[in-house]
Structure to design on (69 residues):
């Protein structure tokens, strides 16, 4: 379950972040994780970054539900 504190922690932002900063950070991390996942041949690394992408999506959904973005 994602909480507000955990959501900000996952994005490495403080709670004063604007909606634009939240979306920008989400997209940046999503792109980084996707690139790492695609460039590695190691299955464990691919799975780890797939989980990170899912976690980011959960954070995005959480912020949408709370109308923060």
């Amino acid at each position: 379950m994602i909480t507000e504190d955990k959501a900000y922690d996952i994005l490495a932002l403080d709670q004063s972040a604007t909606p634009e900063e939240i979306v920008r950070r989400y997209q940046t991390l999503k792109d980084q994780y996707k690139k790492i996942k695609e460039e590695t041949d190691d299955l464990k690394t691919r799975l780890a970054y797939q989980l990170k992408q899912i976690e980011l999506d959960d954070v995005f959904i959480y912020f949408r539900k709370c109308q923060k973005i």
